[in-house]
Amino acid sequence: MKKLIECVPNFSEGRDHNVIRQITDAIESVHGVSLLDVDPGASTNRTVVTFVGDPDATVEAAFRAIRKAAELIDMQKQKGAHPRMGATDVCPFIPVSNVIWEEAIECANRLGKRVGEELKIPVYLYERAARDKSRANLAVIRAGEYEGFFDKIKQPEWKPDFGPAVFNEKSGATVIGVRDFLIAYNVNLNTKSVRRANSVAFDVREQGRVKTENSTPSGKPVLDANGEPVRIPGMLKHVKGIGWFVKEYGVAQVSMNLTNIEETPLHAAFDACAESAAKRGLRVTGSEIVGMVPKRSLVDAGRYFLRKQRWSEGVSEEELIGIAVRSMGLGELKPFVPKEKVIELKIESAEPKPSLAKMNVREFCNETLSDSPAPGGGSVAALMGSLGASLGGMVANLSAGKRGWDDKLEYFSDWAVKAQRLKDELLSLVDEDTNAFNTVMDAFALAKSSPEEKAARTAAIEEATKHAAEVPLKVMETAAKSYELLSEMADNGNPASVSDVGVGALATRACIEGAAMNVRINLGQLKDEKFKIHLQERVDKVSMDSEAQFKRIVQVVESKLR
Questions:
Q1: Structural domain containing residue 117
Q2: Checking DSSP bridges between strand 88-97 and strand 174-178, what pairing results, if any?
Q3: Residue 352 pLDDT exceeds 70
Q4: DSSP string, 114-181
Q5: Is the dihedral of CA 201, 36, 328, 269 positive or negative?
Q6: DSSP secondary structure code for residue 352 in this structure
Q7: Catalytic: 82?
Q8: Which residues pair with 10 in a beta bridge?
Q9: CA 171: distance to chain centroid?
Q10: Do residues 397 and 371 lie in contact, with contact meaning Cβ atoms separated by under 8 Å?
Q11: Domain check: are 426 and 307 in the same one?
């Protein structure tokens, strides 16, 4: 599997688009790297860039970007609303796919060493890459910002991890590290007051606010036994936040970093701000995501808002994302385009080969009807299975919204969510079956001039054919899970939709039997008898179980139709 690591450098320039373009050009000059997002902010005078690639390519691209930023950005002249300490202020690595933490930490160290030695920029390591755990927190390292670092760097405890212990006047210092996925998230308020926005931020963020005598902002801080100010914790864990005014939009915002989106998801931060704002006579008018966001954050938010509406959560990912965008007002300040802002969708849109599963119905039928052997019966069988699951999910959603069935909402919603999952799994197998067939064709096209080449070609054909047999078996086993869904809908679903259950069962059965044929035709080409017997036994079992479940569902459907 391909290794994929994300890098999200923050550059201290958000106004000069020529400078920003030269930095991103440096990133894109590295083969194997995909630039996903460039998000400049004029008031903050800061640009957040997101790119992904394999570890080596990503380290090289990050170095070229830092070098170009050092060349073009003069920190002696830079001013902006966002805290900063260098031309490249912070450069985190985040594992995305098939990359472990240790590999990501090694990337941070390699990059830090090059930046320190070749560019003479002081480098501090933070978060999971930190060597000194007292310096793991970015806010602790950046305290004092650019102006304060001339003296700070002279202190022994602030000797850089890489590079000279002398502050670079033009480029400042850079923080490089490895962290969990962080979402930079701003919530808009119907006020221009930074003080009032800060009040909401203090209510929400984990650090909260300093406790004062008489509980007024102007009161003296209450101190603990060690003479340290006592803090009143905020509403949410893993949230850092401040209030600021954004001149270009004419609104104050609560600007947050969500550092653990598993424990404190996006929608929790939005609702907490809305609750705090309402108590203060303010209103949240929308929000914005700076940089990019993982798909699951918006999908989870969509489900959360559907639950609040007392509605079924069993809708497509596309619809869940749309609900999240509308519910949190993510498009209030500028259009929110999921294909540009959601990591997985951005990567998908950059793939050169179109997915069969993303074709419209006419395009898919035209491609199937053409003289190309793929997509063939295996992909069509997987598509029929996805339609069977979809019909079961449709009945679940119709039943969840049926008047007078409010007490059954959660039951039907859960089944609709399962249907969505099955539908997506089977749609992915539409492409996987065709890809497996193409791999077999590639193996047949290998050279066979010498005995060595013939042996290698024969082995490649055998392995590719085994995989081509396993994929339709996976289609069978996945589609068979739809029977439980369809059975529940036949017994308990909206009676007006019982014919849809019947069609769903027919589609599922056709999928399983069609996929079985594709397993058998591939088994006939194999030499490995043990493998053939094992797969044939699994095929027979799924087919036999399918017939029994199909007959039982059809009996229920027919009885209700009568």
A1: 4-178
A2: parallel
A3: no
A4: HHHHHH---EEEEETT-SSGGG-SHHHHHTTHHHHHHHHTTSGGG--SBS-SS-BTTTB-EEEEE-S-
A5: negative
A6: S
A7: yes
A8: 48, 90
A9: 32
A10: no
A11: no
In sequence order, what are the beta bridge partners of 187? Answer: 254, 287
Provide the pLDDT for residue 351: 66
Residue 353's pLDDT is what?
Answer: 65
CB 472 within 8 A of CB 519: yes
Dig out the tokens for 370 from the structure: 């053409």
Mean pLDDT of the chain: 94
Contacts of 310 (CB under 8 A, 6+ apart): 406, 409
Two structure tokens written together for 6? 């994300």
| 109-123, 232-246, 348-362, range with the lowest pLDDT | 348-362
**Residue 37 is among the residues annotated as catalytic for this protein:** no
Helix-helix angle 377-400:451-480, to 10 degrees: 20
Question: For the chain, how many structural domains are there in total?
Answer: 3
The CA distances from residue 74 to 123, 147, 263, in Å, are: 17, 13, 39
At a CB cut-off of 8 Å and minimum separation 6, what does 454 contact? 448
User: What's residue 1's pLDDT?
Assistant: 55
DSSP label of 496: G
Give yes or no for a contact between 252 and 264, defined as CB atoms under 8 angstroms apart: no
The CATH number of residue 261's host domain is 3.30.70.670
Helix or strand (DSSP H, E) at 188: strand 183-189
Dihedral sign of CA atoms 306, 311, 316, 322 in order: negative
β-strand pairing of 10-11 with 46-53: antiparallel
| Length in residues, the chain | 562
Distance CA 493, CA 416 (A): 11
Helix (H, G, I), strand (E, B) or coil at 97: strand
| Contact yes or no for 293/267 (Cβ under 8 A) | no
- Both structure tokens of 480: 């068979």
Gap between the Cα atoms of 407 and 538, Å rounded: 40
The answer to whether 501 touches 547, Cβ cutoff 8 Å, is: no
User: Which of the listed residues 178, 202, 228 is the one where a domain comes to its end?
Assistant: 178
Same domain for 421 and 452? yes
Cα–Cα distance between 97 and 455 in angstroms, integer?
Answer: 34
Place of tokens 């479940």: 549
Instruction: Quote the tokens at residue 161.
Output: 């991890």
| Catalytic entry in 161, 271, 300, 433 | 433
Tokens of 408: 């059954």
Give one DSSP letter per residue of 206-268, joined into a string: TT-EE-BGGG-TTSPBPB-TTSPBPEE--S-TTEEEEEEEETTTTEEEEEEEES-TTTS-HHH
| 23 and 69 belong to one structural domain | yes
Closest CA to 89 of 25, 147, 46, 150: 46
Q: Among residues 37, 82, 161, 431, which one is catalytic?
A: 82
Same domain, 49 and 165: yes
Shared domain for 464 and 544, answered yes or no, is: yes
What is the model's pTM?
0.78
- Cα–Cα distance, 277 to 329 (Å, whole number): 15
257 - beta bridge partners? Answer: 184, 240
